[in-house]
Amino acid sequence: MNIIEYPDRELLAMDVADKLASDLENRLVQGDSASFAVPGGTTPGPIFDVLSSIRRLDWSRVTVMLTDERWVPEDHARSNTALVRARLLTDAAQMARFLPFYGEGAIGKTVPRLGEDVSPVLPISVLLLGMGDDMHTASLFPGAPGVHAALAPDAPVLNIVEPEDQPEQRVTLAAHVLNGALSKHLVIFGAAKREALERAQKLPPEQAPIRAVMQDLTVHWAE
Ligand SMILES: O=C1O[C@H](COP(=O)(O)O)[C@@H](O)[C@H](O)[C@H]1O
Hints:
It is an enzyme of class 3 (hydrolase). Its EC number is 3.1.1.31. It is built from 7 helices and 10 strands. It is α/β, with parallel strands linked by helices and 223 residues long. The chain has a single domain (2-222), classed as Rossmann fold (3-Layer(aba) Sandwich), CATH 3.40.50.1360. A 7-stranded parallel beta sheet has the order 1-10-9-6-2-3-5, sandwiched between helices. Helix 7 links the parallel strand 9 (183-189) and strand 10. The ligand O=C1O[C@H](COP(=O)(O)O)[C@@H](O)[C@H](O)[C@H]1O binds at residues 39-43, 67-68, 80, 130-132, 138-139. Ligand LXAUTJHC binds at residues 39-43, 67-68, 80, 130-132, 138-139.
């Protein structure tokens, strides 16, 4: 794990957006297409704002997906898809293809079908992760029903997790899918998350799911 510290969040957003675009460009030099998995939540919006206007990247060859989704329709205030559509898939980046992790119908039937669309674009070319103070990443929440299965090496691509302290069911990429990304970045802000990341290094993934994706991870931090 390599930690880069920034003087402020604005500089972090500009630098991380540039790094992600460069990683995607490098993948496109080696192949016809690239896949890009991004988090939802409160952290990535400013990075998306910068990234969406980067024109040197051939976005038409990029498939964007989330690391995880809250099981709510796109017009819901907590939808991660809504965030991605509003802040990332605009401007130059609107040419990218998007794979949603929410669909109509029962979650148990819909999620395996959505996972079938993800398999052909694996391994993830470039991964951006967020993390909560509780050391969850994507929707791999410590001790939540479903997380044990999602951490298993043979987990399906997409998993259902039902954290008791969250208002909705979650859909998350499996830990092995996240960990298998060719380029991996984590963005965190503030002292509490920095301390949580330090703590996570001494805990098993069931208690600190971020631990499952730490190998070759570049962490970007600002106060
Ligand atoms: O619920 C979620 O939480 C994490 C962290 O979110 P943040 O608001 O603390 O940045 C996020 O990475 C994940 O995608 C999201 O669904």
